[in-house]
Design goal:
By secondary structure, the chain is α/β, with parallel strands linked by helices. It has helices at residues 18-29, 54-57, 76-93, 104-111, 122-135, 138-147, 149-154, 160-173, 201-218, 220-227, 242-248, 254-277, 290-302; strands spanning 6-11, 33-35, 62-63, 96-100, 191-197, 282-285. 51% of the residues lie in helices and 9% in strands.
Length: 303
């Protein structure tokens, strides 16, 4: 009996080398790449989202890369449906597909799906929206951390909309938001192998700092300025753009904006690793050398 097709997920923090590894694996395995990086969906963010260039993709077909506008927001739930529909098509031509990204929520959506959390509370949602608009994101972060530390350890704590949603559910039910995120994963018609990149911490921080400087040299400030009139869009509530918007608002100077991007990117990488380390199925490698990783994949294929 023929085995189910295989989805190889390449995960890890920003600047860890996931894109290069995914391309090398796809070349070796003669397959295509699906991105679950929630920022690289949007064509207006080539620099700040580190969207791979044609040269970096090396002729390997990539899906969900710069395929929509930031005004066409793609939620994790919509990505779950669209991503699995695409996989049905790709698996007709390839027994293996590579999925790559640093967005844990979107990886979970793709391979496990989401619990059905339908609790709505307009009064609570409006309250927390008002808190955010008047006091910023910190009170939301503090409330979520105090009431549900398990969710706080895994969530994107810079995404105010997700924090408001969690607080809305907790206000409605009196239970931690994480209690509603424990249903059995949905059955998928493919197997999965998770490959994680976990570089040395100091090396990763140095890469992040240098990458930010390269982005600035490449025109990140001008990219952010062009998007400034759209700064309220959910797709722009992210590291690399929020800091420039604060600078444009006169809150601090240019050098401070760059320093904040470096600091916040390092913090973002730490949150990514916290999320992925909680996924028991990830097999970790310090470096993106494809040889031992391919050996591990072949071992999984033969098991």
């Amino acid at each position: 009996m023929q085995q189910e097709p295989l989805l190889i997920l390449v995960v890890g923090p920003t600047a860890s080398g996931k894109t290069a590894l995914a391309v090398n694996l796809a070349k070796a395995l003669a397959c295509e790449v699906l991105s679950f990086d929630s920022r690289q969906f949007y064509r207006e963010l080539p620099i700040g989202a580190a969207i791979p260039s044609k040269e970096e993709m090396q002729g390997i077909p990539h899906h969900f890369i710069a395929d929509r506008s930031i005004q066409d927001h793609l939620s994790a739930g919509a990505f779950e449906r669209a991503g699995n529909e695409l996989l049905q098509t790709l698996f007709k031509a390839h027994h293996i597909v590579i999925a790559v990204g640093g967005s844990g929520l979107f990886a979970k959506a793709l391979v496990e799906g989401f619990d059905d959390i339908s609790k709505k509370n307009d009064a609570s949602r409006n309250h927390w929206k008002a808190v955010f608009e008047t006091e910023g994101i910190v009170p939301l972060q503090e409330a979520v951390t105090q009431r549900d530390p398990q969710y706080a350890a895994q969530a994107d704590m810079q995404n105010h909309q997700r924090l408001i949603r969690a607080l809305e559910v907790m206000d409605s039910t009196g239970a931690p938001f994480s209690a509603f995120r424990k249903a059995q994963p949905k059955k998928r018609p493919y197997r999965t192998v998770w490959i994680g990149l976990n570089p040395d911490r100091q090396e990763l921080h140095a890469r992040i700092n240098q990458r930010v400087l390269h982005m600035v040299e490449a025109g990140l400030e001008a990219e952010a300025r062009a998007l400034y009139p759209l700064r309220s869009l959910e797709s722009l509530q992210t590291v690399g753009y929020r800091e420039w918007f604060g600078h444009f608002d006169g809150l601090y100077d240019r050098e401070e904006a760059i320093r904040l991007i470096q600091r916040n990117t390092r913090q973002f990488a730490r949150r990514q690793m916290t999320w992925f380390r909680n996924q028991a199925q990830v097999h970790w490698f310090e470096k993106g050398d494809p040889s031992p990783i391919l050996a591990h994949i072949q071992q999984q294929l033969s098991s």
